[in-house]
## 1
Amino acid sequence: METLEYSSQVRERFEKPDNAGRLLGRSVTGGAGDEALGTRVEFDFRLSGDRVEKGVFRAYGCPHAIAAASWVAESAEGRPLWDTTWLDPLSLASVLEVPDYKLGVLLVVQDALEDAARQVERMED
Amino acid sequence: MISAGDIIYLDYAATTPVDDRVAEVMCECMTRDGVYANPASRSHQLGRDAQGRVEMARREVARLLGASHTEVIWTSGATESDNLALKGVAHAFRDRGRHIVTCRTEHKAVLDTARQLEREGFEVTYLTPADAGRVTAEQVREALRDETLLVSVMHVNNETGVVSDVAAIGRVCRERGVLFHVDAAQSAGKLPLDVNRMHVDLMSVSGHKIYGPKGIGALFVRSGAASRLEPIIHGGGHERGMRSGTLPTHQIAGMGEAFRIATREANAEGERIGMLRDRLWEGLVGLGGVLLNGHPEARVPGILNVSFEGVEGESLLFALRELAVSSGSACTSATREASYVLRALGRSDQLAQSSIRFSIGRYTTAEEIDRALAVVSEQVHRLRDLAPKNMLSGRRQAS
């Protein structure tokens, strides 16, 4: 086993994510990934108009996956859910100090957010 | 931040701390007031004193193996012993045959050596364990050919602790006139060994797995049948020409002392460690979704390998950093390669990656086991609660 090294933000979000869980009541859910492949991320977003009022996550994966899901759920708050262009996996990798070989994990997190955005589009259709 | 002193060491299968009694003996063989001379320098008393220490240690190792001291060769460790056994036999007796039989769950020291021999033109059969991690004598019998030169099967698997019936396999090899090598790095000092009763021709052992120093090991080479191994290290003709190089007296004396202690104390120690292992297992089972990897009965007392359903391997290992344990996954690497041993036992990649090997040893206490259980329980529950669905019941997690 190689050394397990994580940034302080990854450690904090992994140890004590304060936005993990499930939202009760009306919310939009998006998910991506597969536990059998090592990473599964889901989001619940409560909307106020088209903007996210509250975001929570659930994650099965490495500490980077858990920390990234926590960061995205929190950062989505106040933004319109249909617009996911603000999430750039490379920028997120830089913020959380995620190594290159873990970029695939961040793509799963991005897919889960975009899945939630598509749920909004379907609701509007 | 967890300081090193707060970490509970449960990785005795990886290596052990040197026993204080061993360290004392080693210190006697290093400095100017001790036995520091070259044991090959038989022209003076100091050299002969060192030689005496080396030969005393050789007898201790031989005693634990049930061998003659003339059949023990010093090496740098079990990896070199495995290399010398496989390459030494293959290169010395290639005119007899070019087929080797081993097992997919062997240590890399055997598997990578076998791969090298394949590149040199030898043919290797890799058996898949049929009996919860154990290779059976019947499997070996079926794999043997007229041109089979060597069978190499480990006694105790380093990841699962599963014990193979090497005596039965040895009997098959002896009947067919095939040389038999056993990697006993994980069993020496833990289980009774007898190279004659087990029909073993070559046996690898290590110092650091049984509270001796790192960097020293030995290879039992049976007189007659296999005593003309082709060396892999040349220069000086030490160890009857099979392993050249100045003998490290302090390490050899340390290994001898470690083997002497094991000969006297292994039985009682095994009983105590087995009780601690059972205490740990009973606590882990209570968490639910905990699977034992390997044979339920045929296993060494000190190793417990389990998979945790519903918990990702890398997160689990990081969450358990208060414990020094081994993981079944190289999960921080780019490849995320799951343990080849657990995969060979039929575990999925996911379960292999969420496996933890707890290995208990001489200095483990009941309090440490209880603390380890509390840490594992807290973290496994926490990570399962974070997951999208409760994988134990297959239902989505309650809100």
## 2
Amino acid sequence: MNAGVTDSGRVRRRSTTSRSIRAYGEPMLWLTGAGLATALLMIAGLLALVVYEGVGTFWPSAVVRYQLADGKTVMGEVAREEWFRPAASVFEALPETRRDAALAAVSAADGWSLRRMLRTGNFELTGEHFKWVSDFEIEKESLPAWALVFERRSWGRFYGEPLAFLVSGAVVAETPEDVWTKILDTEDEVFEREKQRRVLETDDIGAVNRRLEEARLRRRAAEVADGLQSPQAAAAAAAFSAVERTATAEFERIRARIQVLNDSNARFQILVGTAGGQQTRLALADIVRVYPANRLGPAAKLSVYLSRWVEFLSDRPREANSEGGVFPAIFGTVAMTLLMSLLVTPFGVLAALYLREYARGGPIVSTVRIAINNLAGVPSIVFGVFGLGFFCYIVGADIDKLFYSSKLPSPTFGTGGILWASLTLALLTLPVVIVATEEALAAVPSSMREGSYACGASKWQTIRRIVLPRALPGIMTGMILAIARGAGEVAPLMLVGAVKLAPNLPVDASAPYVHLQRSFMHLGFHIYDLGFQSQNSEAAKPMVFTTTLLLIAIIASLNLAAVWLRGRLRRRFVTSQF
Amino acid sequence: MKFFDNLARNLIRAGGIGTIVAVSTVFVFLVWVVAPLFRSASIGQPRPAGRALVQAAANERVIAAAEDDTLSTIWGYTSAARFVVLAAGTGQGDRAGDWGGELLSELRPFPIAPTAYAFPVRSTRALFGFADGTTRLVRAEPHTEYRDVASMPAEERSRSVGESFVFDGRMARRISTDQFELHALELTADEPIQVAEGAAIVAVDFSETPTGPVEASFDDRGVLRVTRLTKTRNLLTGQDTVEIETGQISVQPGHTAGPPRWLLLHGGGNSAIAVWEDGRAVRVDVSNLESLKIVENLDLLADETARLTQVAWLNGKNTLIAGDSKGNVKAWFRVPAPAMSTGDGKHLLPAHDLGQGPAPVTALGSSARTRSLAVGYGDGTIRLFNVTSGRLLAQTTSRASRAVGVVALAPNDDSLVVWDGEFSVASVDAPHPEASGAALALPVWYEGYAGPEHSWQSSSATDEFEPKLGLWPLVFGTLKATFYSMLFGVPIALMAAIYTSEFLRPEVKAIVKPAIELMASLPSVVLGFLAALVFAPVVEGIVPEILAALATVPFVLLLCAHLWQLFPQGLRSRMQGRRFALSGAALVLGVVAAALVGPLVERWLFAADVKLWLDGNSGGATGGWLILTLPVSVMVCVLIAGRAETFERLLPGATGMQALLRFLALSLVAVVVALAAAAGLSFAGFDLRGAFLGTYVQRNALIVGFVMGFAVIPIIYTIAEDALSSIPDNLRAGSLALGATSWQTAVRIVVPTAMSGIFSAVMVGLGRAVGETMVVLMAAGNTPVLEWNVFNGFRTLSANIAVELPEAVRNSTHYRTLFLAALVLFVMTFVLNTAAELVRSRFRKRAYQL
């Protein structure tokens, strides 16, 4: 606290009393130490939060039933709890008999009360997914033994107790145990048929549609090129009608098969009773997963937990992305970053080689170097703006005019897509690769180059055989850092092709297999969209946390890989110098 | 061998230079897109397009005219009460002369000549009033038909693609090998409606409102009538019922003889203005048809010797344009004026002065899509203005330099029809009339606003909406986000860097540094999500605790440190390695203390409810001032204590106990001084609420500042720590050898030497904060408000681009303005980073010399 003293005389005097405890600046040291501790606590707290929320999301929790003071009964999973100060009007809503007890309980806790957010599901019956339940409202709390949690393809979750199992409308089981056994027995065949149906619906119908669309485009191209009345157009039109006829027949056949599958699945139904006393029939075919939450042992819980993770990692999203999996997003992120690294690495290495090995030093090269360093600091959204304006609207629009004119005015390359996103991010990460490569090249000792020259090698031979192999780990480090940066960037992708739901993957089984013009899903954008744009953001929150965990895990492991490589690189230089 | 060497060299050179060039195209491209915003507009030379009228009666004048959006036909209404439709003569190149001005059709809808007429802008209808007290609507609707080659006569089939010609009273164009496009303007007249019994209509106007059309008329007995046709659709039967409401009022300002020359009905149909040639105007509130009332008597002319020559609405019918015989043009609109007691709380003001022209104003033509206005003068001059900015965009002269009778802009503002005795058309190139350096950066007086304001509001539901593209609110938002995140991030990052480089054991540092660098790689979308959906709701509930933490955390830390000093020297030396862990524990203690003190703070300083207090409804200003006065008084007290001889003698702080007493005494004095200052400022009537404090919004600068810390701290930390670590050890060794403690060495030797490196660290951190997108997009609420209030949101340049660019129409003014925003960001970060880089390279040289 005495650092600001400027009077030289007094400083001299104090330095004689060197035993003064103030010279050690212990309090200030504590302050700076606390600064570091704050930074560490921030990162640790954030990671802990994400890991806690992300890892715990899929663990099946117990289903609780509350009998409330107003006579209603609700059942569901507790999503979270919080303390709050109930307003006076809350108590007036309670029945008279309960009011005093509730008031007393709350005032005993200094005006605070605990409330829990109950995920009640059953949206089609109650019109809500969640319900707040305050402590003082609860008359009775119980864990119903046979409460089943149904995860469905639509309408979100359903909580209820099994009353009967029906096959073609006839009751075949009535006790919960029997119903549960029946469910387990039939589950697999129903799921198998459901899977077949989905394959038919997406792949088979998709293939027919694609053929139809191609024929339509050929007709349109012939019309544009040769005129409406031309014989070519007439031939193309005839070909189109032929394709259309076969397609219609094929549609009919597929539909019939789907119908058969649907019919055989629709026979199995479960009669379920809700906490509110309503009864409803759930078709087994609509159910993704069902389990008796309160009867699960640890092993069974683990199996539900793992099956949810598998679904999360390998399935498509459902329910406006708030349920199901993120496989398309993982796929899109990986495809985009791979494409980006394919684009950025050669150019980055070329630029670094030029700057380090070929360009003669001087003000121009150092200016360029400053400019490249600066570019690393340019906001990513600016690259997104450039990508949209230049790649999509200018380059893409020209490609459309040249090669896809039959599809116009709907754009093919003239809008956001995975190619443009990769190119934009390649520009964004270029400085990372250049700087890392340059550092790696600079770290190759000049004695090795000179040795090579002394043996009569040419410059290119030296670079190829001596310099590049030594610099390779450094270049790899730069590439990995670029990938990590690219995988986490969202702002530019919002402008150049990331979408909330892409019907088709950018790489699939239909020719030409790689569809560079397609828009794609991205983990980062998925987080933004779910957390920020979602209708039912409370239900989407667990999904956001797991997606966040996944993204952070990917990026952190990439970064750690880079750190590890850098370490190896250093060791290698230590050994290679003699 | 040589071949490969050369090949490699050329390839690498080409690739390397190419890459570097590619990177610089980013900047060039942004400039290229933005540049047209600032290009000046132009009007081409008028070309003749209308011999048809030459054959008419010599004294026949054209009163109103317009061109259709394909620029193929012109219609005109003349003083002989006839409509004419002409081929517009802007066809393909030189062939225009073949058919330009050919009369396509003609309509004489009225048995007697009308006595009043109105041609509302953007409307396809015109209203006429007659001496017998009736009004009639006439519709002029463009009609397009497409025809196959087969259905065209044989002689026209040889036309080449793109060629235009007159066919069957219509403009035809071959648009492809097998299709023709036929344009016609269809004129139909409605049946007359008896409005006034036994009085002649002298002025009319007509507005199309969302609920239905509203007509206003003025008769020769001084009665203003307003008729509102409300169309309601029965949802069950789908039938429309039209309800007609009429209201009237006698308007007889004593000072004027005769009827008004113009009647203007506002776009919303709720106010009408009658204007006389001498500048007198009466504004009538017609929102309630059962009791029309005069709300304002105005004089639209400042100059007594002048007379009004032209009065018209601007697009949207809310801004009145008045041109006079001296060539002055002024734009008037209503602004809220509760103090004026005008009856409807509004006041008509001359907001924009478009300057004086060379001759009397003889014609006005409003654009149907922007705030552009074409003005024709008595000497043939034609000027194009942007009314909102008051800027002259371009100017030209009519063909014969005769007085301009009619001037009208085509629907897309790409052409101008002029009648100065004969028709001519001029091409107009004014793609971005509303953009200019001043309009983007300075306050602009937008229609309906009380005064010039900075505003960003780029889109709205209605077509007549004027986009407000002031960049300042966005730049302000960017600065606000940067300010608060640096306020939080810089001290923590720098303290952490100093501690890491000077006091941390190497093996701990080997873990700590990568851990913080890992923080830099956290995707910002994750930070934004956590900020908006996790932190924001939590912080909302603990505002007093957070405010308390500002004081308790440093206090508890320092207190713990002073208590620690009471332990014997030997123990402390042995435990030196644990200091970091201990200070971390003290930090946690400080947070706990804040949680305990928070409710008390809220009760004592913020009238028991901090949110109500922030709204400004309760409590005094003392609590707010304390946030500012406490740090200041601490600094002042520390400085004074170091200089005051008596205090130094009394409490030198040489031993642990003395230091503790000194610290407690200083703390007490600082708090008392701060309280006194806060109370004094509060007593003097100053209040921080409204400046740095104000109404609490859940997504606010506090949240952004904190979360942006995650992005900014690791960057500043890494660079600053590198700079500190690169100070050679011989400097430290020298200082320690002279008897300085390691703290003294750190503060007086290492930090000053590494100052330029630290500076560049802060610069790079600033650059990152300026450009950060996802965190502010998700956690800042995105309302472009101009407030420093830490508890309110904002909208930054980057978030604005992310929100609006996907929807912006390519090459529109909005699109280019967003590119300008990107360019501003680019330049801001480029300057910051270049400064940092220059300082850093100087620092490297200096460090090398040490």
